[in-house]
Structures are given as C-alpha cells and as structure tokens.
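Hi everyone, sorry if this is the wrong subforum. Our group has a chain we'd like a structural model of before ordering constructs, and none of us has done structure prediction before. Sequence below.
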Amino acid sequence: MRFLSMIRINERAGQQPSAQLMEDMGKLMAEMTAAGSLLDTAGLRPTVEGKRVRLSRGRQTVIDGPFTEAKEVIGGYAMLQAASMDEALALTRRFLDVHGDEWEIECEVRQLMEDCSEAA
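Answer:
Right subforum, don't worry. Here is the predicted structure as tokens:
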C-alpha cells in the first residue's frame, strides 16, 4: 500500500534546516529508499511563489500566494510504501525524529486510493 506523508510547517517561523539535519535526512532517505519504503520525497517552495486555483459554482479563480489565512502549510511530502497504516506511521516518526527537539512540525499520513473503485 502507498501512503502520503505531508509535512506541515509554520512557514512564518523562518526555520531553515541545518547542515547536520540535511546530512542526517540524506542518510535516512538513502536507507529508506534502499529498503523500498521511500518511493519519493521533496520539499516545497514557499507559498509566496505558489498559486491556488479555486472552483466555485463552475467558475475558476486563481489566487496568488502567500496564503496569509493559512498558519500551517504543506512544506514537503514523502511517498511511502508500507504494509499498514501503523508501518507508515513508524516510517513518518523516523522523519520527525531526525529533526530533534528544536522543530515544531507535524505530518498528516493518508493512504492513497489505488483504483477508482475504492472511492465508491
């Protein structure tokens, strides 16, 4: 089963990853990729560079970032391969553990629907 772990950050906190965090994260990602549990991962550019497309009553509008109404935003993601939600949570906890105690972040973990029949 595939799971999406979305990393929520407070973009206004201005935290930047240290060189040590980047090194530790690189090692963890290499290990998880080799094990087949990490399928893809990336950080996202700041919301000031983003846009939202909204559909309301058949009309589309584009809203430029930053999105001031959002205190927390998706700062990155990890696509995981796991046998269960519990396993996906354990993998996500490993990502969070690497950050130590100076970060305030959370991850939302959700299983992907593998085919359209799951939506019914």
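For your construct planning: The longest helix spans residues 19-35. The two ends are 18 Å apart (CA to CA).
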